[in-house]
Design goal:
Elements: H1 2-26, H2 39-64, H3 70-94, H4 99-118, H5 121-129
Helix pairs in contact: 1-2, 1-5, 3-4
Amino acid sequence: MAKTLRGFAWVMGLACTAIGLFHVVGGNAAIPGEADAGPTLDSLGRFFGAIFAGYGLAWLWAARQDPVPAKVVRWLAAVFLLGGVGRLMSLAVHGWPHWFQVALTAIELVFPPVWFWLADADERASRERRPSGAPAKASLPDLA
């Protein structure tokens, strides 16, 4: 399960970074069905694209740690889940968006529980690999 967690973290990091940069560069054209949304939404979309690219870089950072830090995975999964909840709120208030946004909503609601379940897999595997009495590697700063 540790390899699965690390693989998912890499895929998530690469995908979010690429999607975020695509939105920074493409602006409104990067949003399905919204190429003519106007300058305000273009500005907002490019800004949030940069934020999403940074979110992807945080996943890549986590994937490079040994072990992959469970606390960071849980925080990143919670942020992703909050995005899905926001999309559900939009659906309730404004109705159905473009079909692609509906697919993204499903992804944002399905993946976080998997990450919550896998979050400590690499830390557990690391403890099992470490001989008893051996010191643990330096810990990460507390993000809470």
